[in-house]
Specification:
single chain, about 475 residues, alpha+beta, Uridine Diphospho-n-acetylenolpyruvylglucosamine Reductase, domain 3, eight-stranded antiparallel beta sheet, 19 strands, about 35% helix, binds flavin-adenine dinucleotide
Length: about 475
């Protein structure tokens, strides 16, 4: 679809030169997100600065029936903001104001383009923080977090984004600005719940009212070292079965450890087959006892070593190693594809064995990173993007892993969303009637399907096959 000069002029007049991006060189950065197997350039990107500008932009696109895709920071890993056959991208990177901090009521109003970590930084001096902490939190935006209902290492105890939202300001696909309330006293439908996780298919979030949490009085972070992922998985079940709910319970296998050790030099033992990072928080009284119980559970499951981060510096380095593990993978491979599946926690050992079998059968190296406490696995399939046949095997292996998660009563995504990557799996994950109900919801908000078409719900559900360009590699 070639955009007319008239609409380009009108959009430019709204967002001014600084918010108007065109030309192949400038647009390259917008051609994919963290899912790099498919790429496409929009014809232009517009970056409104205010809700009013966003409303005008969306209103113009609506009046001309032009499809568009919302984008935050582009850290998504399922192709949610891929502009496949979508001429316009609407970004929130200039909407970066924290409009209000209300400590007395433990809430803040933040614009969609505010980076996740900035919220916690802004309230830290008051003894508060914003709990959802995706590992990408130094880059990803609050709008993207809402659209993906993002989780993170601390999801186990604190829940995901939707559990921390009190209200949303939205620009609907016809340009109308609405506020949907989720505070305890708000009557009516829980539209915040419906909107959160909708991956930009219902409209654009322009601001969120978020709940602030008190910074815990004390935190203890332990490292458990295991001969392999099976033993570490057993420790995860044992800790939870002991009635302990850690704030975080994360696992890295030997391949991930080798990459992060080379990058960040934490001092992981060279022969570790897997490690668990276990974080406990709350009142200082009783925390030491909990650490002992966690250590016992780990040792019984086969840990060769369990130690507690000695100080804040060591704790920060441990978390850096975990949260930047994705980035460190570049040391092992030209490209990798991050999978994101969920299994019941007790079945982690089984899925780990299945992933190993898939890895061997396809001749692919697969590293394992997990929000283990949630049963949320992130197998990282390593490959060379110049090898087309390998790319095909990567896609097959990813699908097999996710089908195995479904067969165990799990899910095809824990936090990364469907985007375009997992459209083909929606028919396996949901009945036709459920997909119809989802499509009806989308049609209620987005009747012309202009806002982020071709995402989340397969358009041709009768055959489930989704027609889209062949992967072109990436990294
Ligand atoms: C290294 C790394 C680590 C990660 N770790 C985690 C993790 O621990 N937990 C986790 O959940 N995710 C994780 N992610 C995935 C990703 O960071 C999250 O999904 C994040 O919320 C995306 O935010 P974003 O601003 O980059 O959104 P984008 O990638 O720009 O967009 C994501 C989706 O949201 C839509 N969207 C964006 N902004 C808006 C808006 N304002 N209104 C409506 N729709 C919008 C887009 O259309 C797209 O469908 C990780 C990614 C990377 C690269």
């Amino acid at each position: 679809m070639a955009l007319s000069k008239k609409i380009k002029r009108a959009l430019r007049a709204v967002v001014s030169d600084v918010g108007f991006v065109e030309g192949p060189a400038s647009l390259r950065v917008y051609e994919c997100d963290g899912y790099t197997l498919e790429k496409a350039q929009p014809e232009l990107v517009v970056l409104p600065k205010t809700t009013e500008e966003m409303s005008k932009v969306v209103g113009l696109l609506h009046s001309e029936a032009i499809p568009y895709v919302p984008r935050g920071a582009g850290t998504g890993v399922s192709g949610g903001c891929l502009p496949l056959d979508i001429p316009v991208m609407v970004g929130t990177s200039r909407m970066r104001e924290i409009r209000n901090i209300d400590i007395a009521n433990r809430r803040a109003t933040v614009e969609a383009g505010v980076v996740n970590l900035e919220v916690s930084r802004a309230v830290a001096a008051h003894g508060f923080y914003y709990a959802p902490d995706p590992s990408s939190q130094s880059a990803c935006t609050i709008g993207g977090n809402v659209a993906e209902n993002s989780g993170g290492p601390h999801t186990l105890k604190y829940g995901v984004t939707v559990n921390h939202l009190l209200g949303l300001e939205l620009v609907l696909p016809d340009g109308a600005v609405v506020y949907i309330d989720r505070s305890a006293e708000a009557p009516g439908y829980d539209l915040v719940g419906a909107f959160t996780g909708s991956e930009g298919t219902l409209g654009i979030v322009t601001a969120a009212d978020v709940r602030l949490e008190r910074t815990p009085e004390a935190v203890a972070t332990q490292l458990g070292v295991f001969p392999g992922v099976l033993e570490a998985s057993r420790a995860v079940s044992a800790i939870i079965a002991a009635g302990i709910i850690p704030a975080a319970l994360e696992m890295m296998d030997a391949l991930v450890i080798s990459a992060v050790e080379a990058a960040y030099h934490f001092g992981f033992p060279a022969d570790a087959g897997a490690v668990l990072i276990i974080e406990l928080d709350g009142l200082a009284a009783g925390l030491d006892d909990l650490c002992v119980r966690v250590e016992d559970a780990c040792r019984e499951a086969g840990a060769s070593e369990v130690r507690r981060a000695a100080d804040e510096t060591e704790r920060a380095l441990l978390w850096k190693s975990r949260k930047r593990a994705f980035g460190a993978m570049g040391r092992l491979t030209p490209s990798y594809c991050t999978q994101d599946g969920v299994v019941p926690r007790s079945r982690l050992p089984e899925i780990v064995e299945i992933v190993a079998e898939i890895s061997e059968r396809h001749g692919l190296r697969i590293a394992n990173l997990m929000h283990a406490g949630d049963g949320n696995i992130h197998p990282l399939v390593l490959y060379d993007d110049k090898d087309e046949r390998e790319v095909e095997r990567v896609i097959m292996a990813g699908h097999e892993i996710l089908e195995a998660c479904l067969a165990m009563g799990g899910s095809v995504t824990g936090e990364h969303g469907i985007g375009v990557e997992k459209l083909d799996l929606m028919g396996s994950a949901f009945s036709a009637a459920t997909l119809d109900a989802m499509a009806d919801l989308r049609a209620a908000f987005n009747p012309e399907n202009l806002c982020n078409p071709h995402k989340v719900i397969p358009t041709d559900r009768s055959c489930v096959e989704v027609v889209r360009p062949r992967p072109r590699g990436g990294g």
